[in-house]
């Protein structure tokens, strides 16, 4: 057998280590060989057969080769396959000999000889980073949240100047002086039946004018309610104070911009643009809050980067107003995640009981007093003529007592103070402050934590926890893969196969360019 030139051994300096945290990706064996040959420091082409994972005797002093960390060799008389190895140890023997211990780089040696089958992939760089596509919890420290921007519902954000006082009457105010007036039969406002007729006035002074007129007409008991309501719920009929009836709730849409940065930091990884790294907090400013995830709002060409809400309202005492996200989390109108607005104040008012009583009983009082007067005069006459003096005296006494009773009754009612009706509720303070409306807060983690997590995603991708074939060659510069009990096929020695599996299970990053290994500051787009 010809023993000359049976083995080629090259000593290299490459940026690879035996922990397999980082390795190189090549599209072909030719490209792989070309790269490693470009890193040769020492070449030897006349060695005898080189056994795998053994000692190579290098005919050189250790000082001349200590900066080498890698070996590629080929037993050319037997195979054209190149083996790639790490140098584990160098041992000085003498000035003309250094023994190096090698360990096969199982990834590079068998790179084109194994296939990763569908496996449980714990983490990886994804091949589609659409916002909202990847939401598996990462379990990372988030720190405190920060308000990035805030918004108000533009229909009611200036409620101090954008409301009316609604007076509910059991009669038609336009016919207040009609003594034969029947009770108002009721009407439908925003789809809700009311037994009252609603009138809308603009100021507290107008309320006083209305109540005085109602009391003078003796119909103070017909004032059932006075409450505040947003103007958009109380559209008046043309040229009158009457609130226009309507068969459906008032509905309008509010569009709130989505958050795109975290505390002014723009992330590279879109998972940071989802819950729990950023979200919207909606509040009724009265103790009710709902968290909305930006990624759950369905967008269309007319609503890009917007959160849409439908707000419905019905005119009732306290007002019933409800905000619903749409389309949200798979439902067009997601009522299960709606938020109700705090109640508007139900106002107090004074009811002049004496004026009402006097008006309501004016006919009877006049009749009673006249009758008593006649009785008294008749009695005096009888007493004067001497005929029926006793009867006459009784008539006088009865008449006087009747007048006294009427006068006394009137006096007693005049002593009754104006009666307070209605009540106050929790919406009073925030309505008085002009804040009884929906508030929206775009929340995110602080920039400090956002940068930390973004770097983490740069290095290790996202947690995916899915059985799949790991992504490969889908990023411009590098990609990370970590599996659990990976499935790999290939005609490879068992020990090497186990080491390859361990590398995937421990987590391994493939790089396209050796000069960029561990440089995570570079862009790494999906290709």
Can you offer a commentary on this structure?
With 527 residues, this protein is α+β, with helices and mostly antiparallel strands. Among the domains are: 7-131 and 469-516, no CATH class; 354-417. The chain has helices at residues 29-37, 106-109, 204-216, 353-360, 362-385, 389-415, 427-432, 447-460, 494-506; strands at residues 7-12, 22-24, 40-47, 55-58, 70-74, 83-94, 97-104, 114-116, 119-124, 145-152, 163-169, 187-189, 192-194, 197-201, 223-230, 250-257, 278-283, 289-292, 306-314, 320-325, 339-340, 349-351, 419-421, 439-445, 462-468, 478-484, 488-490, 508-511. A 6-stranded antiparallel β-sheet has the order 3-1-5-6-7-4. Strand 19 (306-314) and strand 20 form a beta hairpin. Helix 4 runs antiparallel to helix 6 (389-415) and helix 5 runs antiparallel to helix 6 (389-415). The longest helix is centred in the last third of the chain and has 27 residues, at 389-415. The radius of gyration is 45 Å and the shape is rod-shaped. The model is unreliable at 362-378, 389-393 and 413-425 (pLDDT under 50).
